[in-house]
Amino acid sequence: MRNDPLAYLSTELDSLKQQGLYRRLRVLEGEQKSDATFDGRHVVNLSSNNYLGLTTHPRLRERALDAIRTFGVGSGSVRTIAGTMDIHLELERRLAAFKRTEAVVVFQSGFAANAGTVSAILTKDDVVVSDELNHASIIDGCRLSRAEIKVFPHKDVGAARAILRGLPAGQRKLLITDGVFSMDGDLGALPGLCALAEEFGCIMMVDDAHASGVFGENGRGTIDHFGMHGRVDVQVGTLSKAIGALGGYVAGSRALIEFLYHRARPFLFSTSHPPAVAATCIAALDVLEQEPGLTDRLWDNTRFFKSGLQALGFDTGASESPITPVIVGDGTRAMALSDRLFAEGVFAQGIAFPTVARDRARVRTIVTATHTRAELQFALDVFAKVGRELGII
Ligand SMILES: Cc1ncc(COP(=O)(O)O)c(C=O)c1O
To answer: Could you tell me whether strands 349-351 and 361-366 are parallel, antiparallel, or unpaired per DSSP bridges?
Structure first.
């Protein structure tokens, strides 16, 4: 009999189980909402990126259904062969106007947008100067590009400057940061980094996955929030979080977008969105422009919940957004906190190494515009009870 060549994977999994870090996938029954049923338990859901509740918005549902009736369910090809439909181009025009850039190209996901763009625009002769907490898709894009990677400590503009000063003036450089950091909920050092990019002639790139729909006028993102229009060469956004559907996009100059049409491998080698996804995203942009009250509610809820956690004595780190971590240090403890919260009716995912540093394990909470005050107060009461029980507060 042949030995299982993958046996080492089971050994790795056993080790995770021993450390209390093994996770089963929780299964959502029904809709992705602020109160939802996972694994048969009805919980207050603090784990989705559905910031504005658009996953179930009636206008988005209707537009998706209309698109299915009119265009069918699939695009049938990659964009560069037969898979570019009018509705894909309409979405890109709408996103370009929303982001106030010349052009936009949509990818199948935010991950593909980051990884596909960084790897397309750089070569092994170039260098990337990257915040240490940038998203995995940026890191993978950097690796795929084979450019030299220089990492600066989180948000440390001075350290980024010292790196740039040590590089040859003629070398092509990409300076890159998340707009909102997904595990800590703090904002990238955009004003300082944009100034550096100008001083050293860098390409400036921002991944605004968690900022679109959340920060800036009508949710235009951190570039709008900080007044940095025209100073960021490559903006990445996602359609998978506040927009409520699926996809990612790059906003920038017409030349950047046309270059990506020719060189970004996820764009070239993977089938385009079903028309219903594009239609849904267009409807989401209508909602962002016509229902600004949703963003106001998101921020009201954010202030209420974040200050509630802080008043209870939890360590919420440096969060400035609807993402509020509850940092407990050790990974096993974070998973125990998450499990106890779940048992009491609150779903907040535990996050440990390698997603965050070994001593910075946490439970991550994300509030949405559609949480009611009663749901958030219930969640705070449960956090208080379980936090005391586990000796965290
Ligand atoms: C900062 C950041 N960038 C990019 C992505 C990827 O976006 P998507 O889920 O659309 O692939 C995520 C999502 O996890 C993220 O948190």
So the answer is: antiparallel
